[in-house]
Specification:
Blueprint: H1 4-9, E1 16-20, E2 27-28, E3 35-36, H2 40-54, E4 58-62, H3 79-89, E5 93-96, E6 110-113, H4 127-139, E7 146-149, E8 171-173, H5 175-189, E9 195-199, H6 204-214, E10 220-223, H7 228-234, H8 249-256, E11 261-262, E12 266-270, E13 279-283, E14 292-296, H9 298-309, E15 313-317, H10 330-344, E16 348-351, H11 354-362, E17 372-373, H12 377-385, H13 390-396
Parallel strand pairs: 1-4, 1-7, 4-6, 5-6, 7-8, 9-10, 9-15, 10-11, 15-16, 16-17
Antiparallel strand pairs: 2-3, 12-13, 12-14
Helix pairs in contact: 2-3, 6-12, 7-8, 9-10
Length: 399
C-alpha cells in the first residue's frame, strides 16, 4: 500500500489532503462544557497531521465521536477535540460543517469536519448512500486532493470516511496505521516465545473469536475481568451474582481443554456495584450468593505476574476488573505492572487499545513502560482473528 511518505515525496504544498483520524475520545461534563478525560487518540493523530501541515498541505481532518442517533447532538460535537488538537499542533484548528462545502484554507493550516456520524450516510449499509457522502468529503480537498487513512481504530468498518472515500481519492496509509499493522503482524506471524496473552473485559461472547484464533498460537492465555466467571462456571463453580453468560459455558469448557488458559484463583466480590459497597476477597470456589465478582484478587495477580515474568511477547486486551472504581482497580494495576516489568526485562508488550489503554493512563502507569499502546481495540482484535479489515483492504488495492 502507498504510504504517507510516498505522498510527501509528491510535494503536497498547497494541495488539499483529507485525513481520516480516530479522535473518538472519552468526554465528561454537561453538554455545553464537555471535557476530555483521555486524549491518547488525539496525541496519536498528531504526527501525521503535523507532517502534512509542515509540508504545506491544506489539511482537512474527518473523524467521529460517540454514537449520535441520526443527527447532530451537542454532546458529541468535536469542538473540545479541536481545542485540544490546536494545543498539540500549536496551530488554530477550527470546526467546519460538511454541508458548508469546501472550507477556505491556506497552505499549512488544519480544519476539522464536525462529527462525520452526524450524517447517517457514514454508517449506511447502502453503498450508494455511502458513496454520495464520500463524494462530498472528496470535494472538500479539490480535484487534486489526496486521502490519508490514519484512524486505525476504524479500519475494521466499511464506512464512507474510511472505505468509500479511498475509492475516489488517491489513498495512502498514515504513519499510525502503518505502525499498528506492523505491530499486529509481529503478533500473528513471528512472536518471540513464550507468547502470553492477557484478556479481560465483560463478556466471553465479545472475545470468543479471538480466543479461538489465539489459542493455537500462544503459550498461555490469562483470563480476568467479568468474562472469567463464565469460565469459572464451566469448572463447576457457583459465581453468585457475577456476570455470567450461561449460553457460553459449553464453549468455555471446550476452550479449557487446551490446557493453556489460566484463570483467577481468588476474586474481589461486593454486595453492590458501587465504590461504597461492602467488599471481600474470596477463593473462586467460595463466592457468596448475592455477591458479585468485580476484580481478580491478589493471589491471582501474583500467579498472573509469575507467568508474565517469563514472557518474551505479551498482548493485553481488557481490564481485570472494574478499574474505574477504586476498590476494584488493583487487579488491573497489578497485572499491568507485571507487563511493564516484563517489558523492562526485554519483553515485547502490546496493549490492545480500548479500556486497556484507558486503564494505563487512568491508573498512572508509565505509557513508555509498554512497547506499544494501540489506538484500536476492536480493529486489533479483528486483525488477530484473521478477518479482512475493509479500511486496510481498500488501501492495499489503491492504484
Amino acid at each position: 500500500m502507498r504510504t504517507l511518505d510516498d505522498l510527501l515525496d509528491e510535494d503536497v504544498n498547497g494541495r488539499g489532503v483529507l485525513v481520516r483520524a480516530d479522535l473518538n475520545v472519552p468526554l465528561e461534563g454537561p453538554d455545553d462544557d464537555r471535557r476530555i478525560t483521555d486524549d491518547g487518540r488525539i496525541r496519536a493523530s498528531v504526527p501525521t497531521i503535523l507532517s502534512l501541515a509542515e509540508a504545506g498541505a491544506k489539511v482537512v481532518v474527518t473523524a467521529h465521536l460517540g454514537r449520535p442517533k441520526g443527527g447532530p447532538e451537542p454532546k458529541y460535537s468535536l469542538a473540545p477535540v479541536a481545542s485540544r488538537l490546536s494545543e498539540l499542533l500549536n496551530v488554530p484548528v477550527r470546526v467546519v460543517a460538511l454541508e458548508a462545502g469546501p472550507p477556505q484554507m491556506v497552505a499549512g493550516k488544519v480544519v476539522l469536519v464536525e462529527n462525520i456520524r452526524f450524517d447517517q450516510r457514514e454508517t449506511s449499509k447502502d453503498p450508494a448512500e455511502r458513496a454520495a457522502l464520500a463524494e462530498e468529503l472528496a470535494a472538500l480537498v479539490g480535484e487534486d486532493g489526496a486521502f490519508v487513512s490514519d484512524g486505525f481504530g476504524v479500519v475494521h468498518r466499511k464506512q464512507a470516511s474510511v472505505y468509500d472515500v479511498a475509492e475516489i481519492l488517491p489513498a495512502y496509509a498514515g504513519g499510525l496505521v502503518l505502525a499498528e499493522v506492523e505491530v499486529l503482524r509481529t503478533l500473528t506471524e513471528s512472536p518471540d516465545r513464550p507468547y502470553v496473552v492477557v484478556l479481560g473485559g465483560s463478556k466471553v461472547s465479545d472475545k470468543l473469536a479471538v480466543i479461538e484464533a489465539l489459542l493455537p498460537k500462544v503459550d498461555s492465555l490469562l483470563v480476568g475481568g467479568g468474562m472469567c466467571f463464565t469460565f469459572l462456571a464451566a469448572l463447576g463453580h457457583s459465581v453468585g451474582d457475577s456476570l455470567l453468560e450461561t449460553e457460553q459455558i459449553d464453549n468455555c469448557r471446550k476452550l479449557l481443554e487446551s490446557g493453556k488458559i489460566v484463570l483467577p484463583t481468588d476474586v474481589v466480590v461486593a454486595d453492590d456495584f458501587s465504590a461504597e459497597a461492602n467488599t471481600r476477597t474470596v477463593d473462586v470456589a467460595e463466592i457468596p450468593d448475592g455477591w458479585k465478582g468485580l476484580d481478580i484478587g491478589p493471589e491471582s495477580v501474583a500467579a498472573f505476574a509469575e507467568v508474565l515474568a517469563g514472557a518474551a511477547t505479551v498482548f493485553w486486551n481488557g481490564p481485570m476488573g472494574v478499574f474505574e472504581l477504586a476498590p476494584f482497580a488493583e487487579g488491573t494495576r497489578g497485572v499491568a505492572q507485571a507487563i511493564v516489568d516484563a517489558t523492562a526485562s526485554g519483553g515485547y508488550s502490546v496493549v490492545g487499545g480500548g479500556d486497556s489503554a484507558a486503564a494505563v493512563r487512568a491508573l498512572g502507569l508509565p505509557e513508555d513502560g509498554f512497547s506499544h499502546i494501540s489506538t484500536g481495540g476492536g480493529a486489533s482484535l479483528e486483525y488477530l482473528e484473521g478477518k479482512e479489515l475493509p479500511g486496510l483492504a481498500v488501501l492495499e488495492g489503491a492504484e
